[in-house]
Amino acid sequence: MSLALSVKGLSCRYNGQPVLRDLTLSVTKGDIVCLLGASGCGKTTLLKAVAGLLPLETGAISINGRQVVDENRDLPPEQRNVGMIFQDYALFPHLTVAENVAFGLKTKDKHARIHEMLSLVKLEGLEKRYPHQLSGGQQQRVAIARALACKPDLLLLDEPFSNIDAQVRYQLIKEIRKIFKEQGVTAVFVTHNREEAFAFADKLAVMNHGEIEQYGMPETLYYRPSSRFVADFMGLGSYVCAALNADALMQASNDADRAHLKKNLGQMEGVEWFIRPQHLSIYLDEDGEGEIKDSQFMGDNSRYLVDVNGHSFMVYSNQLLGAGAKVRLEILPHQPILFSSILNEPSSSLPY
Fold first, then answer.
1. pLDDT for 256-284, tens place per residue?
2. Strand pairing class (249-252; 258-260)
3. What is the chain's alpha carbon radius of gyration, rounded to the nearest angstrom?
4. How far apart are CA 55 and CA 53, in angstroms?
């Protein structure tokens, strides 16, 4: 499949400190890719580098098969045919909705293109309003209409949903994703919110200290993380030392439970089992080895921190249990995520 974006060996520094480290990324046409990571990991720097807003130390970038950065060239932003939507949308406050969408358009029939874009983002009838007269979601739609009006080869979005109220955020994500897919838009967006990433992206690139730790489909990163960093970033969990015996039984070192694996994997020592909260069940039991140390009521469920013989487990449950209660935990059947207890990597012979 043809690539909308190819980044190879990209490195960038701020004040002598490395921000991007020999980074490589490929984005297929029509895909929505999320750069996911904590603040300071380099995700916004990568976005700005692709847009041409930052100087690079080394590396090459091509957009829609056209080289825009290499050792011999560095095209300015206006020659890259890239659309960008900033976190605050960067709408011109003195221009109307229609005038904002028209900004940068060079077609002869601007009015037809404006009408087409406003119809696409469902803002018909609001052409004469100013940005301060719009809701946050409507302002974002104007920014998207403006970016798409010029038919960019690539659309870049920096924290596009951070200013949207939680009540309407995921409905808006659903609508914008539908627009992008219907229009065949290739997009790269930045967020630190994994729920937004799961809902909006086709692929995720988890970044850490200027490098991509893992790149792939959300389901792959969630169920088959390549490192402890990715596993932790994809969602809460608990690590338990475990061993595999010749009967293909995995035994947690604290005798909390066992899990049958689907294949006979032989004997293996020194693995850590990463268990997510949804793979644990909790029961009140006066004779149980677990004790609730902390609880958080989340509305649709409660989160419990349970100590079992010195091991801490995060558990979700719709039961209302108090701190100090004695409980019993059971591990539900699931495909385990296992890491070597020595190296920060999955145990390669395991079907994780």
1. 443 333 333 334 456 888 999 999 999 99
2. antiparallel
3. 24
4. 7
Handedness of CA 8, 222, 41, 229 (dihedral sign): negative
C-alpha–C-alpha distance, residues 1 and 203, integer Å: 15
Tell me the pTM. 0.85
Residue in 33, 80, 46, 38 with CA at minimum distance from that of residue 177: 33
Q: Which bin fits 143, alpha (ψ -120 to 50), beta or left (φ > 0)? A: alpha
Distance CA 100, CA 92 (A): 6
CA distance 102 to 224: 45
Backbone φ and ψ of 138, nearest 5°: -70, -40
Q: Which residue has the tokens 């060996």?
A: 9
Tens of pLDDT, residues 221-258: 999 999 999 999 999 899 988 776 655 445 554 444 43
Note the pLDDT tens digit of each residue in 127-156.
Answer: 999 999 999 889 999 999 999 999 999 999
